[in-house]
Design brief:
Blueprint: E1 2-4, H1 18-23, E2 30-35, H2 40-52, E3 56-60, H3 72-81, E4 87-96, H4 104-121, E5 125-130, H5 133-142, E6 150-152, H6 159-167, E7 170-174, H7 184-192, E8 198-200, H8 222-233, H9 237-252
Parallel strand pairs: 1-2, 2-3, 3-4, 4-5, 5-6, 6-7, 7-8
Helix pairs in contact: 2-3, 4-5, 8-9
Length: about 250
């Protein structure tokens, strides 16, 4: 069965039917989801959902555009939340220069601090990287420890950049854009990066794959990402599903 390695069912766009979607996941062929968070409120809700559903796991952290009020007290609270058995990752964390590049120093500071927390707790971390490839790679390289590992979520860089992140111990996760006709970079990554380093995700409610682009995304749509990777690699759909699920389980020791 499918594993959606990155989906935001804590998002307000799911406030009306969140539990209906979660209750139907297995019937829709999805075995496990990882729900990363963008702030403390979402982190707490992700843990609540993980407590209720055996196949839901939580990532906790502060998104790069949610750092205006960030401080060490909140980081300490994040550390406390990480004690929960269903918290398996710190994230999503990282850098995003697309919306606002005036707070680069703030983003870099708390990216480093959350990486250090992940390393301290021996947890993988989930990286958001948008228009910040150089700084993201530099910080991750500088903060690497022996136990460092994680995911480059919704990867948007080149094959060469993906290879550099893989050297750091990270898996490359592909989402809906790999199904878009003009998404040449994602298709090239899907084609050339070995299957043993790939994960699949929806990033729901965002980045809905073809043929449902423009509608709200849901975890069940992760199958279309797997199908496209299979086509690009010239291998079976089942092989992609099995390999990405095994990669996820290996990363998180599940």
């Amino acid at each position: 069965m499918l594993i959606d390695s990155h989906t935001h069912l804590t998002d307000e766009k799911f406030s009306e039917d969140r539990h209906e979607i979660l209750g139907a996941l297995n019937d829709n062929g999805v075995e496990i989801i990882l729900n990363p968070s963008c702030n403390l409120e979402e982190s707490r809700l992700a843990i609540e959902l993980a407590e209720k559903y055996s196949y839901v796991y939580a990532g906790i952290g502060f998104y790069p555009n949610e750092l205006d009020d960030m401080n060490y007290e909140k980081l300490a609270e994040l550390k406390k939340l990480a004690e929960h058995e269903k918290v398996i990752a710190i994230g999503e964390i990282g850098l995003d220069y697309y919306w606002d590049d005036s707070k680069k120093d703030l983003q870099k500071k708390w990216f480093r601090e959350q990486i250090r927390l992940a390393n301290e707790l021996d947890l993988p971390y989930i990286v958001h990287n948008r228009d910040a490839h150089g700084d993201t790679l530099a910080i991750m390289t500088e903060e690497k420890k022996e136990n460092t590992r994680g995911i480059l979520h919704c990867f948007s860089g080149s094959v060469e950049l993906a290879q550099e992140f893989i050297k750091l111990g990270f898996l490359i996760s592909l989402a809906g854009p790999v199904t878009f006709k003009n998404s040449k970079m994602a298709k090239k990554v899907a084609t050339e990066i070995p299957l043993e380093y790939l994960l699949i995700e929806t990033d729901a409610p965002y980045l809905t794959p073809e043929p449902f682009r423009g509608k709200r995304n849901e975890p069940k749509n992760v199958r279309y990402v797997a199908e496209q990777i299979a086509i690009l690699k010239g291998i079976s759909y089942d092989r992609v599903v099995d390999a990405t699920a095994n990669n996820f389980r290996r990363l998180f020791n599940l």
